[in-house]
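Re: beginner question about structure tokens

> Can someone show what the tokenized structure looks like for a real chain? I only ever see the sequence side.

Sure, here's an example I had lying around. Input first:
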Amino acid sequence: MTAIALIVGLGNPGPEYQLTRHNAGFWFVDELAVREGGAWKREARFHGELARCRLDGHDVRLFKPTTYMNLSGQAVAALAGFFRIAPEQMLVVHDDLDLPPGTVRLKRGGGHGGHNGLRDLIGRLGSRDFLRLRLGIGHPGHREGVVNYVLQRPSRDDVDAIESAIVEGIEALPLVLAGELERAMHRLHSR
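And the corresponding structure tokens:
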């Protein structure tokens, strides 16, 4: 397996979105940066915020696109092109409506599943072959309510569950970075 060089958290910039469900990917990379001493720096040329840290002996970049969710691929493609990072070297962390809060799943490739950030990423990278860490946020129960749901703050119980999933995901990263995806998946999927 190709080594992970970039961990992308998907979300929307700005204080009005900071605590919304759609920003679970940002929550993940923010927590990882705090734990590993990564300092965020605004990078206008890449349309996002970038931090670097050393994870289990691996030099890894953390990235938060500031293009808003639907244009995430624009920012990621600019950064990946500059640093010559292939899709196979990326881990993209995002919210997932199809999983209940507190659930975390790891997979390589696949479609966008209706997630506009992933849709743009796949289109701009021209590839689906990146790792995804999916953080469950639950579903409102009907399609018409999805936009409002993802842009709202979750309940305290859901926040606790999502934060627990983030911790689980971070704790599985050493396995991911070591190329032991099956072990990482087993650990995450059996919790």
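Each token stands for a local structural state, so reading them left to right follows the chain. The helical segments are 24-36, 72-83, 116-125, 146-150, 156-177, 181-189.
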